[in-house]
């Protein structure tokens, strides 16, 4: 006796491209206390953290007010989702860059502490050592990352005030996952024959 043919649907797994979250920004960017400590240690200006946050919250709120007659609730939510996502993404990128700069400054400083290394000695009179320049660069990146963090936090606060719910990143599906990797792999393999 023949068995009936059954068709079975296979589940399709959709990969999502994860967006940066406010929590990720807070983990990578300096907070106000750390930004003040950096500014004082390196002799740079102390920035107005709360002023930046408040300004960006007002900016997003006023933008939404100006658009409210032309956009419905859902369109406003989608628009603000994108705008706030840009602020959060920018702050997260700056935070990652800052973290990398700190790692490089620590490595250079540790190498400079080793007296047996000639290449890490101070430069000629009037020039800073490579380790010193890396520390100053990391400090500048820390202040910048903090400023962008405050702008993002202001935008997120405005989103919650306007939309009535907490902002979350939009996780978009990855188009043709693996397809571009397959093409790159094929191109690399084909180049071996040249």
Q: What would you note in describing this structure?
A:
Keywords: Plasmid. This is ArgG. Residues 170-194 are annotated as: Disordered. Residues 170-185 have a biased composition (Basic and acidic residues). By secondary structure, this protein is an all-alpha fold. It has one domain. The protein is built from six helices and two strands, in the order βαααααβα. The chain has helices spanning 22-28, 32-42, 49-67, 73-112, 130-163, 179-191; strands at residues 16-17, 172-173. α1 packs antiparallel against α5 and α3 (49-67) runs parallel beside α5. The radius of gyration is 25 Å and the shape is flat.
Give the key terms.
2 strands, single chain, 194 residues, 6 helices, flat, two-stranded antiparallel ribbon, mainly alpha
Brief characterization of the structure:
With 194 residues, the chain is mainly alpha-helical. Helices cover 64% and strands 2% of the residues.
Task: Give the helix level as a range of percent.
Answer: 55-70%
The percentage of residues in β strands lies in: under 5%
Low-confidence stretches: none
Q: How would you sum up the global shape?
A: flat
* Count of distinct strands: 2
Structure classification? mainly alpha
Could you describe the largest sheet, including whether it forms a barrel? 2 strands, antiparallel
Domain module tally: 1
User: So how many helices?
Assistant: 6
Query: Looking across the biggest beta sheet, what order are the strands in?
Result: 1-2
The Cα radius of gyration reads 25 Å
Through-space gap between termini: 57 Å
| Mean model confidence by pLDDT | 82
Please write the string of helix (H) and strand (E) elements.
Answer: EHHHHHEH
């Amino acid at each position: 006796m023949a068995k009936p043919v059954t068709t079975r649907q296979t589940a399709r797994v959709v990969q999502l491209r994860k967006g940066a979250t406010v929590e990720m920004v807070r983990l990578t960017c300096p907070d106000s206390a750390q930004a003040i400590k950096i500014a004082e240690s390196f002799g740079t200006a102390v920035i107005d953290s709360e002023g930046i946050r408040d300004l960006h919250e007002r900016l997003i709120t006023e933008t939404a007010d100006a658009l409210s007659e032309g956009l419905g609730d859902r369109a406003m939510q989608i628009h603000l989702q994108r705008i706030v996502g840009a602020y959060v993404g920018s702050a997260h990128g700056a935070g990652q860059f800052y973290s990398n700069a700190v790692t490089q400054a620590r490595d250079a400083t540790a190498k400079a502490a080793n007296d047996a290394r000639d290449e890490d000695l101070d430069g000629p009179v009037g020039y800073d050592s490579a380790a010193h320049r890396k520390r100053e660069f990391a400090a500048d990146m820390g202040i910048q990352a903090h400023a962008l963090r405050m702008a993002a936090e202001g935008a997120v606060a405005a989103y919650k005030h306007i939309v009535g719910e907490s902002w979350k990143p939009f996780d978009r599906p990855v188009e043709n996952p693996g397809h571009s990797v397959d093409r790159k792999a094929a191109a690399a393999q084909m180049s071996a024959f040249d």
